[in-house]
Each structure stands twice: as C-alpha cells, then as structure tokens.
Amino acid sequence: MATLDLGSGGGVDTLNGIATYLSNGGTAARVLTASLLGLISSPFIAVIDIINAIRTFATAPFEGAGQSIAALFDGLLTAPAGLIEAGARISENSIAAVFGQTLAGILALPLTVALALGSLLLLARFLNEEETGNLFPGLPFDVPVIGADEEEVEDE
Fold this sequence. Notes:
By secondary structure, the chain is mostly helical. It is 72% helix and 0% strand. Keywords: Membrane, Transmembrane, Transmembrane helix.
C-alpha cells in the first residue's frame, strides 16, 4: 500500500510526493481528500501557531529571568560550598599526614568544621569592621604614603 508523503510543505516536495503516491498505486480520491482536509485545517493550525508565538513572546523574559536567578543562587551557594569542601579535603589530608590515619579519622571532621567556621568568622569580622586601614585589613589606621590623605568626616 502506497503512503502519501507531502514533504515539508514546499511546492516541489508536495508535487513529488503526490506523483510518487499516484505512481505507487495510490488513489486520486485520497489525494483530493487530504488536500481538502489540509485547506480546512490550515487556518486553525495558523491560529494555533500565532497563539503559541504570542505565548512564547510573553513568557520568554520570565523563563530567562528564572534561569538567571537559578544560576545566581547556584553561584552564590554552590561555589562557596565547593570551596569549603575543597578546604576540608586539604585539611583532612594535612591532618592525616601529621597525626596518622587513625587519629586523623577521629579529628578530621571537628578540625575541618572548626577551620571552616573560623574562616567564616574572620570574613564576618572583616565585613563588619567599621574602620580599617589602607595597609592591612583590621588595622585601624592609614599609612600616609599609600593612597590619598582624606580628612575625617563625622558620620551622621
């Protein structure tokens, strides 16, 4: 039994598909029926395509924003966690080298947690420091040679 293949909808593909169908024993009534159904259904398909295009146009910015926010949270949460994990592995290897495998297995978790929390504490103290110098973080004075000399301004 011959199958009717109209191609991708281009004129030459459609005519070649109809000619192939008829030469393989297909009936002209089926071609006519398919053509009439195509003519009847094409306006509905066009309206559906227009509605889909409008929906895609309206929702694309929100989908893009959602993907951007997901990437932002992934970068803000996953990257520091990976950094802490890498530091914990390095600490564990160092503890194993110093104390040996048995004692390192017992001390690895508490020491790596303490190191991670200590580094977060140093970071939090640095960020909460009201006045810091221009030479080293944490020093409350400026070295006059480095940077611009500024007069003190009272905070309001």
